[in-house]
Design goal:
Keywords: Oxidoreductase
Distance between the termini: 27 Å
Bound molecules: (2R)-2,3-dihydroxypropanoic acid
Oligomer: single chain
Helix content: 25-40%
Largest sheet: 7 strands, parallel
Pfam families: 2-Hacid_dh, 2-Hacid_dh_C
Number of strands: 12
GO molecular function: oxidoreductase activity
Mean pLDDT: 98
Domain D-isomer specific 2-hydroxyacid dehydrogenase NAD-binding: 110-288
Family: Belongs to the D-isomer specific 2-hydroxyacid dehydrogenase family.
Length: 320
């Protein structure tokens, strides 16, 4: 009997076809609606491979309900939605989709930085509402990016790509990371800094660290209080890294100037989240890697990892 694959979202048929030729593929029939928990639990019960997305919680319950499962192929570079310990215990391989999304996500991070610093969404919103009364000397004024200092928290592949973009804007770049990056320091002049030093010195902060027990709540009340009153915080990594309640108060009380958020503690962000009431917050629905080419590339990597495992090869992007 052909091996069974369950895909938790409707993926592009041109990619899924490579799996259908050889295996028994079942796929949740919606692109935008999350697979219901009971369907996921039912489907994994006889699946050999699971293709998941970042919105799926692949926790102990799911992994324990899947006696035949050999691989969880997660269509994301992040893998905080998967219980890696249980996967390891059960001998289930977990893969992710790095590299193909590096530049795309860095572009979005930089775009969000510009949009937040220059209040683009707020300005567009007033125009559409008919509130653009006349050119105004101090209307819509924001913060300069050129020549400012950028701090990157999490200097992985995407962090480096954002930092390289910053060089094109004549920015000084400080970074904080688990390990130093001597090659990037030598090649581009990026400077390593301890977290508190970075928070005090920079004009813009871009968070690109993975969500782990160490980074959960890493930016809270104390850290926000260290930042400049004119600072702009951008988070394109994971919501849980920033304490949203502390961020709300810091923005409301003018402790920092603005924030641009592509990610939230809870996604989709509930509409009663107080952050959404603030004009100095620019928000996006987790679209860091959302270009056609990149999403197809991520699908191809996800499918290839499943093919590799089911055909007895070592997959390229193994997490555990
Ligand atoms: C990732 O790749 O981790 C993204 O956040 C999901 O699109």
């Amino acid at each position: 009997m052909a091996a069974r694959i369950f895909i938790t979202r409707k993926m592009e048929e041109q990619v899924v076809a490579s799996l259908r030729k050889k295996f028994d593929v079942r796929m949740w029939d919606s692109e935008s609606e999350k697979v219901p928990r009971e369907v996921l639990l039912r489907e994994v019960a006889d699946a050999d491979a699971l293709w998941s997305v970042t919105a799926d919680s692949i926790d102990r319950e799911v992994l324990m309900a899947a006696p035949k499962l050999k691989i969880v192929s997660n269509m994301a570079v992040g893998h905080n939605n998967i219980d890696l310990e249980v996967a390891k215990e059960r001998g289930i391989i977990v893969t992710n989709t790095p590299d193909v999304l590096t530049n795309t996500t860095a572009d979005l991070a930089f775009g969000l930085l510009i949009a937040t610093a220059r209040r683009l969404m707020e300005a567009e919103d007033t125009l559409r509402k008919g509130q653009w009364t006349s050119w105004s000397p101090m209307g819509y004024t924001g913060m300069d990016i050129g020549g400012a200092t950028l701090g990157i928290i999490g200097m992985g592949r995407i962090g480096e790509a954002v930092a390289r973009r910053a060089k094109g804007f004549d920015m000084r770049v400080l970074y904080h990371n688990r390990s130093r990056k001597p090659e990037a320091e030598a090649a581009y002049g990026f400077e390593y800094a301890e977290l508190d030093t970075l928070l005090k010195e920079v004009d813009f902060i871009v968070i690109l660290a993975p969500l782990t027990p160490e980074t959960l709540g890493m930016i809270g009340e104390r850290e926000l209080a260290l930042m400049k009153k004119t600072a702009v915080l951008i988070n394109v990594a994971r919501g849980g890294i920033v304490d949203e309640t502390a961020l709300y108060h810091a923005l409301k009380e003018g402790q920092i100037w603005a924030a641009g958020l592509d990610v939230f503690e809870k996604e989709p962000v509930p509409l009663d989240n107080p952050l959404l009431t603030l004009p100095n917050v620019t928000v996006l629905p987790h679209i860091g890697s959302a270009t056609i080419k990149t999403r197809i590339g991520m699908m191809e990597l996800s499918a290839q990892a499943i093919l590799d495992i089911l055909e007895g090869r070592e997959p390229k992007n193994r997490v555990v």
